[in-house]
Amino acid sequence: MDANRPKPPDLQGSKAVVVVLVTVLLLIVGGYWGWTQNGPLGAMLGVMLGAALGALIYTVVRVSDHSNRIAEPSAPDVRELPPDQALQVLSALMNAAASASESGASFSLGLLGEIAAARDKASKKGDIEGAIKELKRLAEEHPRSSAVSAELSRVHRMAGDEEAAKKAASEALYLALRGGMNGLALQLFAEFDGAEELTLEGSYWEQLARILDHADKPEDAAKCRARAGGGSESE
Fold this sequence. Notes:
Elements lengths: L12 H59 L11 H13 L1 H7 L6 H14 L4 H14 L4 H13 L3 H17 L3 H10 L2 H4 L4 H13 L3 H13 L5
Keywords: Membrane, Transmembrane, Transmembrane helix
InterPro entries: TPR-like_helical_dom_sf
Protein name: Tetratricopeptide repeat protein
């Protein structure tokens, strides 16, 4: 048999317990009824009848449960996407939230969903202060999330607070480099003219320079190496 072949969905939880109990009850009732009608042979036939009815009930409930699972739409898994692309996907999902709720769809968005909600609050609803407050809360709850700091830097820029934006972007760049998120690091570097505006420890400037070399951006890499030699430190 192929070990990779997908297995059919099975019943779980309370439905499985109910089906098992009903099947056992049918076996007992069938055996008793058969015994009263025709002795041992009738009891055996009654048990077989109870087993058949139990199997039928199990099949019907299983098919119904599987159909319900197929009918329920779910959000795509964005965990493998770069943070900014994932946020774009989640923002699109949130734009469709009203119609989705009417059709019974539900999405579990998690941290990236909360970041996307803060982005929409700032860019579409104009509530920049509320977005900053929400992102700061998320930053406290998820201090290692580069995506939170990156979005916070963008919202600070929308508010015209360049110093706060640079500080948040520097933190996001540091976390991205530390977490191996090279794509986000390059994006932040481009958004903020990183070699001039952001601050990092020297070793991280060197790491960023290697990433820029790999991205075929030798001039930016040289700027980062110059900063590495200067020994600038992140705040």
